[in-house]
GGDEF domain-containing protein
Amino acid sequence: MFVVPILLNSMLVIFLMALSWTHRKKRLAQAFLAVLACLLVWSLAHLLEVFSNTLSNTLFWENVRISGSFLLSFFWLAFVGIYTGHETLVKKYSRYLILYPLILIALMWSDSSHHLFRHLPGMVRPVYGFAVLNNSYTSFFYLAFSPFTAVMYLASLGLLAESFRKSRGKVRSQLVLLTAAMIVPLLAELMFLLGTTPVPQISFTSQSLMLASILLGRAVFQFDLFQSVLLARDVVLETLQDGVIVIDRYNQLLDINPAAMMMLGLAANQTSGLLAGEALKAIPNHAELLAEQEICCSETHIGQLFLEVNVVPVRDSSQAITARIFTLHDITERVLLFEQIKQLASYDALTGVLNRSVLFEKADDIVSAARGGGAAFSLIMLDIDQFKRINDLFGHQTGDRALKAVVDLCTSQLRAGDLVGRYGGEEFVVVLPDTNLHEAQQISERLRQAIEQSPLDTYKGYYQITSSFGVACSDLFGEEASLEKMICAADQALYEAKGKGANQVVVVDQQRVTFEGLYERVAA
């Protein structure tokens, strides 16, 4: 039973090495292969040491075992460093860190000439019949080997803990497995040093390596370790204003930064174990984005937040998609700026009503509906009477206030679907959908009275503003109704109202339309 776990572990490690070999071009896989090689050396050397019958053979395999375990601490730190996104530091310092264990290993193999590590090694035979080496290690041995090993594993534990604190979802599961795989053999070794192992003087560290290998295997294959190398998140993702989401090949949430959580309305404790569909459900078209096979860009919104969503598939050497990276860029300011520009381009800056070109554009739909047999529409042209006199008496600022006051009075009296636009100067056009001539005349009269009854407050006292109105309806023109003819007719009626003393409404009736072809002739 003592041998079986070691043999099974050796077989498992060889199997993991064979599978990891397919990723050997990746730095993470190279470091992992070095870790597995050290585990294999440690495990097999311990087995061969136990079954050795001579002191020289036992010392040989003991040296091999210590060499593997000592190098393991270095390669484990290198592996964890690359995995947690510190590959630059690994490259920078690894050539110096490796020198120390290599020098100590060389001294250990030459111990017979200087005895720095062992006093008088010998063989003892425990009750269970296993040959065990009495190493008689010196204090120098422990001072040379233990601090370095402790620093390597503590540094690894620190990197894993820091990454665990900042990571989300599946990455946390990987980190837990890697941490457990590191701690298990260390605890077994600690029990041996404290003399608390089930069999005195027998180390069960090699047996514990089987559990460590199982944990590593799960991290590699169930959680796709080689596709999940962490970026230096503390520098990049945590401070990035854009949201970043990493989805693995199984549509599981692999990583998400704080900006993305804020945009999607997710709390940190909600992201663990989330599927991509659940994490991205706030994005209306998330299902289509998750199915994308190529790089794509889409604009969407979550409430009042407007986002540009970029999806970049990550492919392996066989071009199979291994992950998708979503970046969420807040374009709310850009969208609002565009709407503001659109507003400025569509509306009169002074009065806030539609400008002439946009008014005509929107009115064309109403004209088309009327031509197609829909309900008639009417058009009103109004002009502020003696507007020049207002400017002359009170100045242009008061004139601007007069324009704004008239517009505000008109819009407050009109319906939601009615169009109001500035035609030019102090002239305005009102388009009334689904409105016959009689109704338009009533609306015009209501507007005229509202303006007349609302004098303008000036620095010289109140000034009574009046307006003249010309009203036309599409029924008078039949299928030949057009915006140009309607404006022409209403303009002539407005001119007539001015000629009659202003402050009144003149309606374009059938007689005016046909009389000497006046409006038809002008329109033509």
Remarks:
- The chain is about 55% helix and 15% strand.
- The chain has a mean pLDDT of 82.
